[in-house]
Amino acid sequence: MRYLLYFSCLLLSGCMIDYNLGLNRIKEGKFQEATELLTKAHAQYPKNPQILFSRGISRGFQENYSGAVADLTRAIKLENDHADYYFYRAYFKSKLGNEKGAIADYSKSIAIYPYYSESYFNRGVKLLSTGNLTEACYDFQYASDLGDTLSLGYLNIYCSSIKRPE
After folding, report:
1. Taking Cα atoms as reference points, which of 98, 89, 86, 87 lies closest to residue 129?
2. If you average pLDDT over residues 6-21, what whole number do you get?
3. Residue 93 gets which letter from DSSP?
4. Please, which of 92, 106, 135, 143 could form a disulfide with 123 given CB 3.0 to 4.6 Å?
């Protein structure tokens, strides 16, 4: 029965074995294997943004930040309405030292999904690192209001003198 299912899966173009195996390898922390499987899946389905997104995540966790940003940029070109695509591209841009690019991508993530507390928190951290304390504190407050507990510590440490937005 298993072989029949596998064979029928090979005949149907919608079955992405390499993609699914790649996702499993990411969950297992086997990022090199995941990247290889996702590269095979991408060769079969070059217009699938989820494959590029997943490979970007896998590359980023291997500290191949340039490769991660490239994959996420291509995923965004195919489908630009996913907050996660921008969130992770921002994260990996930040790892490359591109703080302004990271802030812009966190902002885009928030514009798509305004309840993404992690985007507010991470943008706040980037704003703080670039010297924009007031805007950073606003982001920490919004993130905290959305339930992000890490933001509370930043609010207490950096924002006690900042007047909160109404």
Report:
1. 98
2. 63
3. H
4. 106
Euclidean distance between the first and the last CA atom of the chain, given in angstroms as a whole number: 62
Tens digit of each residue's pLDDT (9 = 90 or more) over 109-123: 999 999 999 999 999
Q: How does DSSP classify residue 124? A: H
Buried b / exposed e over 78-96, threshold 16 CB at 10 Å, is: beeebbbbbbbbbbbbbee
DSSP 165: P
Interatomic CA distance for residues 107 and 140, integer angstroms: 14
Region 80-101: what's the mean pLDDT? Answer: 98
Q: For residue 165, what are the CA distances in angstroms to 45, 123, 141, 161?
A: 46, 17, 9, 13
